[in-house]
Amino acid sequence: MPSESDVLVRSTPDAPWLPPGSRAEVVRSSTAPTPACLVRLLLRRGTEVFCVPREQTAALDLPTRAVEPSDPDGRATAERLAHDVLGQAAPLAPVGFVRNVFAEGVPGYGWPVPLAHFVVWETTGVPAVEGQWVDTRGPGSPLTERHWFPLLSALG
Q1: How many domains does the chain have?
Q2: Which domain of life is it from (predicted)?
């Protein structure tokens, strides 16, 4: 259920990375929705964000972890991810999410339907793992193609 403070940042009907007839929405929100499928950890330093290589492609992205069904909004998973990245527990706050929306089930699609959420949780601290601070300014940023990227402008 949407929170009153939710702000739709961007909607992409027939998003090319999703099956036909679906859409992707980027939402600024202080509430973690369910079901959470992935959590991403946002650490900011000025105009930079902390990134690590993705497991499958080595492309830089926010630290990410899959969420088990026993953790509906992903908070416990985000807490473990933050601990692993920072080397200690840290306060977390959901700042938004990407939501995939489907009218019906699609064979071979691996996320829940009709809604699947990919939640961004923010914290502060100094990373204790290898990674890279990546500038998010301008069209030359390597992160502009990330589905969560429009959320940054909404966060200020």
Answers
A1: 1
A2: Bacteria
Separation of alpha carbons 138 and 115, rounded Å? 31
Please give the structure tokens belonging to residue 28. 């600024």
In a domain, 144, yes or no: yes
Q: Which domain holds residue 55?
A: 7-155
Residue 2 falls within a domain, yes or no? Answer: no
The answer to the question of residue 1 being in a domain is no
Per the domain annotation, does 28 fall within a domain? Answer: yes
pTM of the predicted model, to two decimals? 0.93
* Beta-bridge partners for 49: 44, 134
Extended strands (E) in the chain = 7-13, 23-28, 36-42, 44-45, 48-53, 60-61, 64-66, 93-101, 115-122, 132-135
User: Residue 14 and residue 76: Cα distance in Å, rounded?
Assistant: 32
Which residue in 119, 118, 116, 140 sits closest to 47, CA to CA?
140
Residues with Cβ within 8 Å of residue 16, at least 6 apart in sequence: none
